[in-house]
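Holo prediction — zinc ion.
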Amino acid sequence: MLHIKCPYCGMRSQNEFAYGGDASVTRPELNKEILDSEWDSFVYLRKSLKGKHLELWHHISGCRQWFKVQRDTSTHEIFKTLKPGESI
Amino acid sequence: MSQDFRLNNVGLINRDKKISFKFNGKSYFGYKGDTLASALIANGVHLIGRSFKYHRPRGFFGAGVDEPYAIVQLYRNNETDPNVRATEQELFEGLEAKSVNCWPNVNFDIGAINNFLNKFFPAGFYYKTFMWPKSFWYKVYEPFIRKAAGFGVASIKHDKERYEHKYEYCDLLITGSGPSGLASAYAAAKNGARVILAEDKPRFGGSLLTSEVNIGNQNGKEWAEKIITELKEMPNVIVKNRSQVFGYYDHNMLVMSERVNDHLPKSKKYSPKQRLWYIRAKEVVISSGSIERPLVFGNNDTPGVVLSSAAKEYLKVYGVLVGRNPLIFTNNDSGYETAIEFKKHGIWPIVLDTRSNPDSEIIDEAKRMGINIKFSYVIIAAKGYKKVKSAEIAKISQDKKDLGKIENVNCDCICVSGFWTPTIHLASQSGNKTKFNKEIDAFVPGQSKQEETTVGSANGVFTLEETLKTSFEIGHQLSKKITKNDNKVSVPTVVEKKSTVHDKFWCVPLPEGKKYKRFLDFQNDVAVTDVELALREGYRSIEHVKRYTTLGMATDQGKTSNLNGLQLVSNIENKIVPEVGHTTFRPPYTPVTIGAIVGREIGKHSKPTRKSSMHLWHEKNNAVFVDAGVWLRPRYYKQGNETLFEASKREATNVRKNVGVCDVTTLGKIDIKGPDVAEFLNRIYTNAWLKLPVGKARYGVMLREDGIVMDDGTTTRISENHYHMTTTTAQAANVLSHLEYYLQVVWPKLNVNVVSTTEQWAGAAIAGPKSRDVLQKLFPDINVSNEGLPFMGYVEGNLFGVYARIFRISFSGELAYEVNVESNNGNFMWEKIMEIGKEFEIQPYGTEALSTLRIEMGHVAGSELDGRTIPYDNSLEGLVSKKKDFIGKRSLSRLAFVAEDRQKVVGVVPLDKKTSIPEGSHLVKDAKAKLPNPKLGHVSASCWSVEYNNPFSLAILHDGKNMIGQKLYALSPLKNQSIPVEIVSSHYVDPKGERVRS
Ligand SMILES: [Zn+2]
């Protein structure tokens, strides 16, 4: 069970959290004209990488805040956690 | 009942407390402090079971966790546990155990025929033998395997025992209380660290309980007692016996199983049988010790062949002799320690040492005591079927290839020592890259991945002096890192006998013409020939060899067999062991009961049960409940002998004719506040939200980014910056997370707050032509006329002194209202509605009638919004704004979503107007077409239309728009039904929606 540092609450066990997908994906702005391929890659295409991955987690049984986690997908090492607005 | 094999005045058992127990129906006695194994051996019982494959007789091999043979079915307090190791089970008054794996009984075992047919049971025998002919599998092979193979029998009774989970944090978790564990725990605790010291056995001390050493001015056992006593008194230390740390998981989370009451006839009141500890440790010290390795020779699985360290433990801890005429077969000095213990108690052992001329303090002492030692000698085979009676021994040449003349020696037990294997399971589980240590012919922990350090013999250190020195140091260093303290304790002086190097030889060659089975894995009956065969058949990876031969599998996980298997593979393959590599160690290190894993989360407690504040009323009025997620909802209210069908028909009819009331508390409710709510809703929902006035509700549909409908519901504007959203019962939690995601991550600039208020409000839907009359009487001060409170209107009211919110919304398609009050007033509201509604013939209705009402109205719900449909499919395209952007809009222009013949919701009526169509039926053109019959759509929801008194269903149908009037078939292969149907509009009743606006 991972031990994750919520930027708002501190270190908590994984069972308080829900995984929320790739955090490096940005939603296209509303009302912006974009190519089908851009929309397609936003909705469907995700890297399945081995190594450092920036991802979203939701402190669902805690403060209910979404935040970013930089984690190694093969070792589970967590390097950093950030508030949604912060960048590495 | 004499105990022929019990010594007087030796051991740590309590001879004042006699304990009687039964094994295979026969009564015996032992003493408090015995294990089942030690008590049976004391009584001369050595035949415990039958082996897994060949059903060969099985006795005892070890004295603890590594035991591969002595597995019994245990009976305690009217419960039974399978696969209990007799070497670990402490004796208690009234204990009963039976052999497993033998039928009809341990002395006459039908499966033993396998032993004489063993050429038919080679490696991979399951894969080969039982493959052909196929028709034999169910009738012949499977029943035979089930009866004749396998270990114990799981109880099918409800387990009445309690199991608990506990979560704990500490600075240092120390796994094992041998010398290395005690030293590091003591050093760390004295340096202020929070320490948990876990010991698998009932007694602390590990090897100090059986070794002849001195630490400071005490013997090893006394020193261990002193340290434990001191640790127990320290407030920063938790000391646990009968507790096995069995799993090392990510981020230094370890799991430990504590056998709290297994050693007692029944569990103490308010105390669990077992407790599972989830321990998050800053540092882990692995002091799990080492396990003696077997030597491999002919018939080395015969009862009476035991590990030499186990023989010593039975003698020194339990005062029990595994035999009175022992042979000791060793390739290192450990065998001599056992020989010396025997000799001290008047037993004359013979030592066979594979080495030619070793020289050490221990060997010198054995010589001084006059023990018969034969150097360069090996055992070729054990003789005897149910117990060792003699052994064939011979001299072996320097190069270990040639055997001398075979001699027969009488003996009643053979104690083997093939040197030591460090217990690296936990280190390996943690991700540690283990490395091969040539000096000890075994793997030891290498580079750490997590915060873990291995000490003592688990790390390949076999002298006490070195073990204590390094363990004190490690305990100090690790605790210093955490506590920043620097209080050092002094390392005591050690007196121990020096030993010399072991012999790398471990597998005795077979003499010309002899075909003895030489076993590597004792639990799974894997012999040398099986591994040779696997390699001949082309298996190379050690992982494949393991699975093909079953070497190292089953409940002991190869604790005694792994390394010998690896050595054999490397010998045959002419590789060195590190190239062959070891198989992956996975948790659990020892079997853990399902009860302990599940803990308190059983039956009703496996998930929370949510009840509305009207639940008691429903119960009192004969509601039959249905699970809706974790909620309990009334499905129908039973009157007399009514069936579900009759009751729901009555309830639905009454809504259409008079008025009904339904508990809608379970709907998800989200309170939304802030100046930007309208803008937010406009982005979340597919329809327009910017102009919703205060006091009005609106129906909305929300999509996922891929265009699929996520949920639907109404949102009401309570005041300028305050909205109340409802979601479906099932999607309530997902919708909240969805809203939070967009507010926190995607559009953080929107000033909006959301909070779940599902449990804060109780809701009742009042539906039917007479609902306005009921509402008027409930709220005499409010103008509830069609003008005063129009469809989708909202007012607040006073319900006999209770604050209420009134929404004119409808799911049933009738004139309807939903009244919400604070949860604690829910029952009051409900009773008032029933009381006032009486004159209008009000009846409560459940989810079944609710479904009927919505289906015949063509209102889509969860069965249509199934995660595969877009708004068009549900005839909700009118709610999709063309002007504004919203979540998922871009996806709706996907080619498949705008196809001319896109699927759409339709109504389905059977041509005979009688046969109900099973939900899930496929709609096809030709009922008799060749399979696979092309599917045009599926029936999503079915009901008995109370309006037309015939069956009616909704379906999602290919090109649904152009299919109205078509005749198709509804096929249900599951129910073996083929029903001719007609496709009609999904809006079967009141297609213009006049009733809700009346
Ligand atoms: Zn948090």
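READOUT: The first strand of chain B starts at residue 14 and ends at 23.
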